[in-house]
Amino acid sequence: MTTILVTGGTGTLGRLVAERLRADGHEVRVLSRHSRSCAVDLREGGPALDAAVAGVDAIVHCASSPRGGDEEAAGHLIAAARTAGVPHLVYVSVVGVDRVPFGYYQTKHAVERLVVESGLGWTVLRATQFHDLLVDVFERVAKAPVVLLPAGVSAQPVEAAEVAGRLAELAVGAPAGRAPDLGGPEVRPVESLARAYLRAVGRRRPILSLPMPGRVYRGFRAGGHLAPRRAVGKRTFEEYLLTRFGSALHR
């Protein structure tokens, strides 16, 4: 039986990774600030982190925060993994981190470099945006009388459980380096996805798409965050909406 540590294991993705690994018969340690078994703040490190990584066969690093500290956290995790002799570190990243100069993407890219240069056996999987993320964005912008969206931008949402399943597969295999990207099944204009969300929740809102200034917008408009040749995900955005909102779906 393989013992695997999942960082961020109480979050959206990490929880699914842990569930998949347990279902496949592996022993899982869940690390997060709120975990019952491995309560660790990766930004601080320390003896609790050393104990969490001791004796594991692989680490799946899902922990991330938009508030910052990811590079520091990864540094502590890598140092502890090296000391413990962990043979495999799997990191989940985002498609486009090397093409779109968005702050969060740049941080993810920096963590990728730390993983690659760690001296550990490593695997990096980049995925496109989760269905959940787009719904969160649409929920915020739909609070206004008019839904404002960036003109000319598309998205390729993917099911978080499918990414979790792929991470679980990679974790029990040999270090693979850069694994093939995992993209959702469809590349669609953001306006189309927003209309699907509005139908699902029964809201009527006009949509106004506006051009925006800056390099980040140009990167997204150019499709730097998309992986059309790796549209291997199965579950569509509408299928996700139907499951999430159920009988509230309006057509």
From TrEMBL:
Sorted alphabetically, which Gene3D superfamilies does this protein's record hold? Answer: NAD(P)-binding Rossmann-like Domain
Segments forming domain NAD(P)-binding: 8-132
* Matching InterPro entries: Ergot_Alk_Oxidoreductase, NAD(P)-bd_dom, NAD(P)-bd_dom_sf
Its domain of life?
Bacteria
- Name the record gives this protein: NAD(P)H-binding protein
Taxonomic source organism: Streptomyces similanensis
The root-end lineage is: Bacteria, Bacillati, Actinomycetota, Actinomycetes, Kitasatosporales
